[in-house]
Design a protein that fits this description.
Elements: H1 21-33, H2 37-54, H3 61-75, H4 92-95, H5 114-126, H6 131-151, H7 158-168, H8 187-197
């Protein structure tokens, strides 16, 4: 649909630095088209003062000024012939996107327990029997129960936790439910977290 005098952003040229908006880009384009260097210089100084008001300095003023002049050079596609008060030859480094960070994807049998619990399962397999292993097994079982409670929306079966702990430690950790008492789960902690997410 074409209506005379009405244009959409999708029909306009793509902005080099959208944070300054289309009006500042138009000012930069106007500055490039001015015939004399003095006019271009005066226009560029005015544009920088406007850009400075749009994004005030938070720290080092000299670095902020450098950034603004770099941005002006980028927005003009290095076509603005003026005497820059600082070196803008490195401005292209601002525009280059960093390489994406590698995300460590590790395969685990059940995702709701998380990778760290599986590291603890491996540690429990190699530990010598004794109070230290028993205490770590107790902490692990309680954390498993909390994870189950959280991810299964309020249901955490003690027998499932004991069974999973035995399975993922290759039978090394066997918890007797007649003797073992799980920590009490505070239901309000989980329901409040769910409400906050909504």
């Amino acid at each position: 649909m074409n209506i005379e005098g009405l244009d959409y952003n999708t029909q306009r040229d793509k902005l080099v630095l959208p944070e300054y908006g289309r009006e500042v880009q138009k000012m930069v384009d106007h500055a490039v088209s001015l015939p004399t260097k003095e006019e271009r210089q005066q226009c560029a100084n005015t544009i920088i003062s406007i850009m400075e008001r749009m994004s005030p300095a938070n720290g080092d003023a000299a670095m902020h000024k450098q950034k603004l002049w770099d941005h002006l050079a980028l927005m003009s596609n290095f076509q603005l012939d003026i005497d820059y008060p600082c070196d803008v030859s490195q401005a292209l480094k601002i525009a280059t996107k960093p390489e994406p960070l590698a995300y460590p994807m590790k395969e685990i049998p059940v995702r709701h327990y998380g990778y760290m619990l599986f590291e603890i399962f491996d540690k429990l397999k190699t530990m010598e029997p004794g109070p230290e292993r028993d205490e770590l097994a107790r902490y692990t079982a309680n954390q498993m129960k909390r994870d189950l409670y959280q991810w299964s929306h309020g249901s955490a079966d003690d027998e499932k936790v004991v069974s999973d702990l035995a399975r993922f430690t290759d039978g090394v950790i066997q918890i007797d439910l007649k003797k073992f008492v799980f920590d009490k789960i505070n239901e309000r902690d989980f329901t409040e977290k769910r409400k906050k997410k909504k």
